[in-house]
Amino acid sequence: MPVDLDHPAIDAVLATAATLLHMEVVFLGGLTDETFTFEKVHASSEWPGLQPGLSAPRTDSFCHRLLEGAPSSTADAANDAAYQDAPVRTRLGIQSYVGVPVRDTDGVVVATLCGIDRNNVVVDESAVEVLRQLAEIVSAQLGPLAAEKVVIRRSPHGGWEVGGEATEDLTSAMVLADLLAAEISPAARPSKVETPLDELSQLKLSVKQLEHALAARVVVEQAIGVLTERQGSSPRDAFERLRKVARSRGRKVHDLAKEVVQSATDRAVPLPPELAGRR
User: Fold this and answer.
1) What are the domain boundaries of the chain?
2) What is the per-residue pLDDT across 118-170, written as a single tens digit (0 to 9) for each?
3) If exposure means fewest CB atoms within 10 Å of the residue's CB, which of 5, 73, 138, 193 is most exposed?
4) Which band of pLDDT confidence, cut at 50, 70 and 90, is reported for residue 249?
């Protein structure tokens, strides 16, 4: 996997998957022809021997068997013919597993989105389908970044870095983090409820919200471009101004952003004075 995964969209996907699956660990698995790696791990409890970066021969992994045609999930790996001989099962004490592939824009499998547990956890097909939708969101995030081999990560001193260098031009991560924080708050691993269908409906809504936030990011970044040119400011200052104005008026950032973009070609679109600038 050629990109860094410390990104708010990936974090939101894993948190939502954890709520969906009721499993101790959800993770993104990285695959090469020879190896399997736990690239990004979201854990509700400590699991001795399991940490991000843990690698094993690809053929030792559950994910290799999944991609070779094994069922998407098992709640009894020790007695499941498709998974019982996986060395990682005995190495980590895995009893339950679910996984779906993450594909790039060409349909090539570049990762897996999975959950594991040391107890028997049944995952039905409706939950697996939501997991597939979450994998599509990961694919959308990895696609353009993987093609350009861009590495996006949080700076140790705050802010964001691209390729190891701090930048003000990258507003994408800031915008998405803000949208996710404002509209999505995936819960930690909850206790099981008596109405799983109702819970599943809520999780499907969370997936839609995440997809919406990713789409809204594009409009916000367009608005930042308009404000940067209009007011002669940096992209970061433009974003902070847009966010401040939206919050002071009790509006969503992306709704106000749409109006800013429209105002670039239509002078009749009303804007708050802080965003009007020179038109």
Assistant:
1) 8-150, 185-279
2) 999 999 898 899 899 888 888 876 654 444 444 444 455 555 454 454 444 44
3) 193
4) confident
Q: What angle do CA 165, 167, 169 make, to 5 degrees?
A: 145
Compute and round to an integer the Cα radius of gyration of the chain.
Answer: 21
Please tell me whether the overall predicted TM-score, pTM, comes out greater than 0.70 for this model. Answer: no
What pLDDT is recorded for position 199?
Answer: 62
Joined together, the tokens standing for residue 172 give: 């994408």
Answer yes or no: are the C-beta atoms of 250 and 239 closer than 8 Å. Answer: no
